[in-house]
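Annotated sample (chain length 155).
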Amino acid sequence: MRRQRRDPLAISEGRYGAGGYSLVAVLLTLLGLSFLAVAGFMIAMGEVRVARYEAASVHAFYAADSGLNTVLGTTTGYPADTTVLSTPSDTTTVTATRLAELAGGRRLYFLRARARHHAFDGSVGDRTLSLVLLADPDSTARPPAVKSGTWRESM
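Output written by the structure step:
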């Protein structure tokens, strides 16, 4: 009787007849876990990016608010049509639009401040704030700003 020679590279059936199924199952499980790890990493990187842009947007909000306060604090009489304020990371443009001419030479203006903040990491934030201003040319005091219900933000 002749003995059959076994192929040393063949997967043996083993005691339970698995036939290499365990190896395939482990490889597929590792592949699935790798995909989950990559997906988690991508989500985390996206969240970091969102946080950077949110921080830049907050800085732009403060720059727009500062621009409005600068124009309000330095204006005696009528505001200029356009005022541009710049810092190394912010540019704020405040525009004044005349809405109405009132008795006594007073004027009603709509002020809009648009600010853009450039962060060091490349993210950019834009914000716009606006308010209504009652300007009196005879007053040397800061003009009153009508703020109730007129603050707006846009991203």
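Annotation: The chain has one helix and five strands.
Annotation: The first helix runs from residue 21 to 74.
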